[in-house]
Amino acid sequence: MSEILDEWPLYEIFVRGRRGLNHVHVGSLHAADDEMALRHARDVYTRRNEGVSIWAVRSDAIAASSPDEKDPLFAPSCDKVYRHPTFYDIPEDVPHM
Amino acid sequence: MTPADDFHDSAYDGLLDHHTVADDSQWAFGTEFEDPLAGVDTTVPAGEDPHALAAYCLMIGDDALVNAHRLSEWCSRAPDLEEDIALANIALDLLGQARLLLARAATASPDVVPPLPPGSPVPPEDALAFFRDDAAFRNVRLVEGDNGDFAVTIVRLLLFSTWRLALLERLQSSRDQVLAAVAAKGVKEVTYHRDYAARWFLTLSRGTEESRSRVLAGLDAVWRFHDELFVPTRIEASLADSGVGVDPATVAEEVAGLLDEVFSVSGVDRPDLPQVGAVAGGRGRDGRHTEAFSHLLAEMQSVARAHPSGRW
């Protein structure tokens, strides 16, 4: 045993639902290692028949944007209405738009 | 069916595909629940003694019921939230198996069900779980002891699930269609239980000095009930002969091999400890139980027994 931690590391859990195409973040949990994280995720997040696939990622392995950067990162897109394809006439028979 | 029954049934109707379901899009992840007994022939196999079949169902049903109760005692007391839910899930899996098996015992031979006051709404499987005295339970003694600490529970779960999985795998080809269906459902569940227990056994054994010493103490506490798991009763032997049940003696070698693998990666020696013997010529399967079992039953049954006409 190399190092004894006070607490298990935190994992972020992503589950792909029966009808979902992609994995969706469902929450986080603590686990002793990667394999246990998958098992804990199965127990905590798929016990009501929700999932068919699980990803578990160490939280400290995720690079996240900071709330402080919100304006520089996202505000510039607010006034660029021309980036949205909303200036076309959609024919009546085109579904799902 | 009384209106009250109707109410009880209807609570889940909306969740079940086979009852509805034109539009279940409100459920994010789908509602494809499976009824393990759907389309299963529930007649007693030709030439089989219904009493023996019922007795056998009680044996493997009680194993699951009593272990489920012990595991449920961990609720809110496990070392972590994640383990709390994991143990509760395992308890619920076993409770589900117990329910099907006790119900099977009651349909095969209704005289095993304890009598209740006229008009009591208690279903037969609940009557069997909550209104039998300890001597009428047929579970092995391994499952009835106090939980001890987490390591004791893990060691017991490893031993129990390895043994039960070996039994259920063989039971899938039972001539009794209900037993075969329950076993097929149980194999998937118990495979996970065994994996969970083995992983924790390894983690604790190779963890700290403290965790390892607790695993070894857990083996000391649990291992004395090992040999009993493989002693067949007359009923098990006879049902195994007729292709309905499994003789537990036939799984001993496989279970030993699997446990040895876990012991070996965990750096633990296979225990060589004295075993509990027969009491007055009988073991758990004969209704001879430990003192801890009486306390367990008192807690498990007291509410149901105080309200034999109660509706839950």
Overview features:
heterodimer; A: 97 residues; alpha+beta; Ubiquitin-like (UB roll); 3-stranded antiparallel beta sheet; 2 helices; flat; B: 312 residues; mainly alpha; 10 helices; 54% helix; disordered N terminus
Major sheet details of chain B: none
Portion in beta strands of chain A: 15-25%
Task: Name the shape of chain B in a single word.
Answer: globular
The CATH architecture of chain A is Roll
CATH fold name of chain A? Ubiquitin-like (UB roll)
Explain this structure.
- The complex is a heterodimer of chains A (97) and B (312).
- Chain A has helices at 34-45, 70-74; strands at residues 10-17, 24-30, 51-58.
- With 97 residues, chain A is of the alpha+beta class.
- Chain A has one domain: Roll (Ubiquitin-like (UB roll)), CATH 3.10.20.
- Chain A has a 3-stranded antiparallel β-sheet, with helices on one face.
- The radius of gyration of chain A is 20 Å and the shape is flat.
- Chain A starts with 9 loop residues before the first strand and ends in a 23-residue tail after the last helix.
- With 312 residues, chain B is an all-alpha fold.
- Chain B has one domain (49-272): Ferritin (Up-down Bundle), CATH 1.20.1260.10.
- Chain B has helices spanning 3-10, 50-72, 81-108, 124-130, 150-171, 177-205, 209-222, 234-241, 252-266, 291-306.
- Chain B is globular, with a radius of gyration of 20 Å.
- In chain B, 40% of the residues are buried.
- Chains A and B meet through helix 1 of A and helix 3 and helix 6 of B.
